[in-house]
Design brief:
single chain; 435 residues; mainly alpha; three-stranded antiparallel sheet; 13 helices; elongated
C-alpha cells in the first residue's frame, strides 16, 4: 500500500563509531548534491550516469577489501587490514573530481572531513591508496564510452514523429545517451522493446483518449490524489531514489559492504536503464501527447479528435514519448532492490521536493504502478510508453544481477550459483493490469 507520510526519512548520513557504512551513505549524498549542482535543471536521465560511475567505484573499493562479492570489471583485491571506509571516501571523491572539477573545493573539504573521522595510520593510508586505484580503474574503463558524442535525431516531422514541444521548443536533449556504452549490458539495444502501436490502431486510440481526459492541465478527470501522484514524480527521480536508498540502508543497519553493493546494483542498473530508454527514444522517435492531441487530425485514426489548445498538467520534457525514462529507471531500481534484498518488500520512504511529502512503498509493484500512472496523469507519456519502459527497466536490472555484484566463495574467484530459494521475482505488473 502506498501512503503519504507526514514524516521524513531518518538522518541517513549521521555517522557513529559503530556505523562504518555511514561513509558510503555520506558520499552518496555528496555525489547527488555535486551532480545536481553540475547539471542544473536538465530534464534528462543524465544524473543516473554519474551516480552509476561513483557507485561502482565505491563498490570496488569496499568489496575489494572486505571480500564476499565479485568486483566490477576488476581483479585487484585490496591489501590486508586496509580501511574500507577510507577507500570508499577516496574512490567517490576521485571519480567526482574527475567529472565535476568545478566542485573541487567542496569535494576536497568533504574528503578531508571523512579522513579526519578515521583513525590515522597504516590502515587508513592503505585504504586511501586502494580507493585511488579503484577510482582510476573506473575512469579508465569509461574512456571513449561515447559521452557527449554528436548523435543527431534525423527524423523529419510527420504524423507520429517527435518534434520540439511547447513552451520552450527545445531540441531532443542528450541524444548521446542512446549510444553511450552501458555499464553492465552488452549494448544499448540489448533490451530495446518492440515498437509502439500504429497510429491507426485501437491501442493507440485508447492511449490517446486516456491522456486527453486524464493528463490535461485543466478540466481533467483526475482526482486530487491522482494529481498529487503526478506532481510527486515530476521532479528528479534519480535524486528521490538516492535519498530513499540511503534511508533504507541506515534503518536496516546494512554493513559497509552491503551498503556499497546496494548502491552499486541500484545505480548501475539505473544507468543502463537510462541508456536503454534513450536508445528506444532515438530509435522510434514518437511524438509526445501534446503534439498527438493537438495534431490528431493528421493521425488517420477516426477514434481520435484534435484539440489545438490542449495542454498537459506537466511541462513536456524535450525528448520522445516511447519509452518513458521515468518508468524505465523506476522499474530498474525496484528490480535491483528486490534482487539484492532477496524479497519483494522493498521498504522505501520516497520523498518529493515538488509536493513536500514522503510516500512509503512496501512493494516494487506499488512503486512501478505509481510511476507509470504519474506520467500518464501528468500528460507527458502514453500508458504504452510507460509500461514498455517499466518492463524494459526490470529486464535490465534482472540481467544485471545475474551477471554482476554476485557473492563469491572464500577464495574470491568463483561466484556462487543461484540456489533454489533464490527464484527470480515475477514479471512486474507495471500498472497495466496484466499479470
Amino acid at each position: 500500500m502506498t501512503l503519504t507520510a507526514a514524516t521524513t526519512p531518518s538522518a541517513a548520513g549521521t555517522r557513529t563509531a559503530a556505523d562504518p557504512a555511514a561513509v558510503v551513505r555520506e558520499w552518496n549524498a555528496i555525489a547527488t548534491d555535486t551532480i545536481k549542482a553540475g547539471l542544473g535543471p536538465r530534464p534528462s536521465g543524465q544524473a543516473a550516469i554519474w551516480e552509476g560511475f561513483v557507485s561502482v567505484a565505491v563498490y570496488n573499493a569496499v568489496a575489494g577489501i572486505e571480500g564476499g562479492y565479485a568486483l566490477y570489471e576488476w581483479h585487484e583485491r585490496g591489501p590486508a587490514k586496509a580501511s574500507s571506509a577510507a577507500a570508499a571516501a577516496t574512490a567517490a571523491h576521485d571519480v567526482l573530481l574527475a567529472y565535476f572539477p568545478a566542485a573541487k573545493a567542496r569535494l576536497d573539504t568533504a574528503y578531508a572531513d571523512s579522513l579526519a573521522a578515521l583513525p590515522a595510520g597504516q590502515a587508513r593510508d592503505r585504504g586511501v591508496d586502494y580507493g585511488k586505484r579503484a577510482a582510476a580503474r573506473i575512469i579508465e574503463l569509461r574512456e571513449g564510452d561515447g559521452r557527449f558524442a554528436d548523435v543527431p535525431f534525423t527524423a523529419s516531422p510527420a504524423p507520429g514523429i517527435w518534434r520540439p514541444t511547447p513552451p520552450a521548443f527545445q531540441p531532443f536533449i542528450d541524444t548521446w545517451l542512446a549510444r553511450l556504452r552501458p555499464l553492465l549490458l552488452a549494448s544499448p539495444q540489448q533490451f530495446r522493446p518492440g515498437g509502439p502501436p500504429a497510429l491507426s490502431s485501437a491501442a493507440y486510440a485508447e492511449d490517446f483518449q486516456e491522456l486527453k481526459a486524464m493528463g490535461a492541465k485543466t478540466g481533467s478527470g483526475r482526482s486530487a490524489q491522482q494529481t498529487e501522484t503526478a506532481l510527486f514524480f515530476s521532479g528528479n527521480l534519480v535524486e528521490q531514489v538516492q535519498t530513499a536508498v540511503r534511508d533504507h540502508a541506515a534503518r536496516h543497519r546494512l554493513g559497509i559492504t552491503e551498503t556499497a553493493r546496494l548502491f552499486a546494483a541500484v545505480n548501475a542498473s539505473a544507468t543502463d536503464a537510462v541508456i536503454t530508454a534513450w536508445d528506444a527514444k532515438l530509435h522510434y522517435g514518437t511524438w509526445r501527447p501534446i503534439t498527438a492531441i493537438r495534431l490528431a487530425g493528421t493521425d488517420g485514426n477516426p477514434a481520435t479528435t484534435a484539440d489545438p489548445a490542449w495542454e498537459p498538467l506537466l511541462v513536456t520534457p524535450p525528448h520522445p514519448d516511447y519509452v518513458a525514462g521515468h518508468t524505465t529507471v523506476a522499474a530498474a531500481v525496484a528490480r535491483a532492490l528486490t534482487g539484492v534484498l532477496g524479497t519483494s518488500h522493498i521498504d522505501l520512504y520516497v520523498p518529493s521536493d515538488v509536493t513536500g511529502t514522503t510516500r512509503y512503498y512496501g512493494s516494487a509493484d506499488d512503486l512501478d504502478r505509481d510511476v507509470v500512472d504519474a506520467r500518464v496523469w501528468g500528460g507527458v507519456h502514453s500508458r504504452t510508453a510507460d509500461v514498455a519502459g517499466c518492463r524494459a527497466g526490470a529486464h535490465v536490472a534482472a540481467w544485471a544481477l545475474d551477471h554482476y555484484f554476485r557473492p563469491v566463495t572464500k577464495n574470491g574467484t568463483q561466484p556462487f550459483p543461484p540456489t533454489a530459494g533464490q527464484a527470480r521475482p515475477a514479471e512486474p505488473k507495471c500498472g497495466d493490469g496484466k499479470p
